[in-house]
Amino acid sequence: MAGPLKTDAIVLRSLRYGEADRILHLYTPHRGRIGAIAKGVRRTRSRFGGRLEPFRRVRLICHEGRGELLTITGVETLDAHAALGEHAATLDAAARACDAVARIFETEEPHPEVYNLLANELALLASNPALACHANALAFRLKLLVAAGLAPALSSCASCGELENIAAFSAAAGGVVCSACEAGSFPLALETYEFMTAALAQPLAQAPSCSPGALREAERAISETLEHHHHLRLRAAVAR
Questions:
Q1: What pTM, to 2 d.p., does this model score?
Q2: Residues near 179 by Cβ (< 8 Å), separated by ≥ 6?
Q3: Boundaries of every domain in the chain
Q4: Which tens digit of pLDDT belongs to each residue from 170-195?
Q5: Class in CATH terms, 1-90+109-132
Q6: 66, burial (CB in 10 Å: exposed 0-12, middle 13-18, buried 19+)
Q7: What digits encode the pLDDT tens for the residues 141-176?
């Protein structure tokens, strides 16, 4: 239905359109991922200024017509995350976090917890550049899996329910598997298992540290889970 819409949003991506406009990919708490056009935003005297740059958390007033894109008519900055631009690593981490949200949650189905998780991740990266690391990026993705209903089973064998002898990870089975059920899986080190369980249990700011090898295994588990259940391959969690 045509009319005004007020919503908080995080700017995931901004694309040039025409001579002075931009098309924005946005993530909102109650409308999921939406698209909008900001007319005249690239003009020097635009009323929007720089408030619609990627990674900013904003409050929007939009006109919702019959087309797919909303038209932005007003914007208020809630959090500019300006410090992200001070370090290449934090900018890259923010871009990968936004890309993961945009691709896993690509519809208008509401996921307020995803909006809050992304807002928290961007704020953490802006306040502490040391968090632009592999462990934090994987902890963020594990929490996205939970929100998507794809959380891997970690407390017992995903195939038979065995509590002991956990030896491997199987995306097809849905999580860790025991030595008797490891066909089609890959070996999972104890350190990797402990990282994944701790990362899910602890806040993002307290993502546990572990060896590079364990982090690579954890990323493989996340990637294979998304590929098997969501038919999706994300960019690497960090630049190689």
A1: 0.94
A2: 165, 167, 168
A3: 1-90+109-132, 134-230
A4: 999 999 999 999 888 999 999 999 99
A5: mainly beta
A6: exposed
A7: 999 999 999 999 999 999 999 999 999 999 999 999
